[in-house]
Amino acid sequence: MTDRRDFLKASLLATSALALPRISRAATTVSGSVPGKVGARVVSTWDFGVPANQAAWAVLGKGGKPLDAVEKGVMVPESDLNNHSVGRAGYPDRDGHVTLDASIMDGDGRCGAVAALEHIGHPINVARKVMENTPHVLLVGDGALEFALQQGFKKEHLLTPESEKAWHEWLKQAKYKPVANSENIDYHRSVQNLGMPGGKNNHDTIGMLAVDADGHLAGACTTSGMAWKLHGRVGDSPIIGAGLYVDNEVGGATSTGVGEEVIRTAGSFLVVELMRHGRSPQEACEEAVRRIVKKRPDAAKELQVGFLALRRDGECGAYAIQKGFTYAVCDMQQQDRLLASPSVYQTTYT
Ligand code: ASP
C-alpha cells in the first residue's frame, strides 16, 4: 500500500511540476531543521507554502514588515480555487456552509482572529482588521461577518461547484473522519483535474512565520478547517497559542492537522515556551508532538498534527505525527525550498 502511495505521490509531484511551475521542487529531503543566521526568512506549511512564501518574500525581501509579508503570503492559498482546505474554495461543513478560521500575530503581542466566518474569501484580512480596529482579539460567526461588512469587505459565495460536488459525494455516507494528510495528494489531484473530488485529504492549513533581519517576527494562519465538520466547529488556527503564537523575544510557531489535539495542548504556545527555555525549534516541535501522542496514543496513530517553528535568528524546525507533512522555506539564498518533515510514524495510515 505504501509503495503504491509513494509511486502515486511521485508521479503526481512529477506531473504537478508541469502544471504548477511555481512549485519547482518536490519534498525529497527529509529534514526538520534548517540553520538560521541568514537574515530575513519566511517558512510555511505544506507544498502550497512555496507560492505563498514567494508572495511574502516580495514584501519581506525588500525590507517590508513581517506582518505585511505573512498577510500577503497566506492570501495566495486563500484565493487558490484548487485548494480545498484554505479560503475561497474550502470544503464546507456537513450542512454545506463554508466557514473559515484565521489568525494573525505580530511579535510584539498584537493579534487578531476570526472563526467560523462565512462569505469572505480572505479571512486573514478580516483578522488583521480585528487586530487593528477593535479592542478585541477574536470575532466569530455572524458577528465576524457583520464586522467584515462594516469594514468594507464584500459578501461572496464561497462554495465552488467542485466543493459542492465533493460535499454531495460525502453526504452519501456522511461519515466524519479526519483524513491525514494529505501528502498533499488532494491538492495535486485537484490541480490536475484528476477527478475524485473529495480526494483522500480533507483538512490542511497554511501557517506562515516570517522574521526580518532584525529578528522581528510575525505569523498568520488560515484554513477552512476540517471538511464536513459540525456547523460552528472551530479549530486551532484562529486560537492564539494553539494554531499560532509569535514572540519577538523568542520566535514563533504554527500548526496544521487535527485542531482539537492542538488546542488540548496549547500547541504553538508550548513550542515557543520550549524554545524560550532553550530547546531548538526542532526539539520544541518534537516535544509538542510527543505530548499529543502521549495523551492519546491510540487516537494519534490515525491522525495528523504537524508543528513548524521559527526562532528569531532564523533557525527553523518541523515535526509531525504522520509521514507526509511538508514545509516551505524561503530566504535570500533560496526562494522555493520544500522539505519533508520528520515524523513519529514512518508510514501514513490508510
Ligand atoms: N488545523 C486545522 C483545523 O483543525 C486543519 C488542518 O490544518 O488540517 O481546523
From TrEMBL:
Pfam families: Asparaginase_2. SUPFAM superfamilies: N-terminal nucleophile aminohydrolases (Ntn hydrolases). It comes from the Bacteria. Keywords: Signal. The keyword Zinc does not apply. InterPro entries: Ntn_hydrolases_N, Peptidase_T2, TAT_signal, TAT_signal_bac_arc. NCBIfam families: TAT_signal_seq. This is N(4)-(Beta-N-acetylglucosaminyl)-L-asparaginase. It comes from Dyella flagellata.
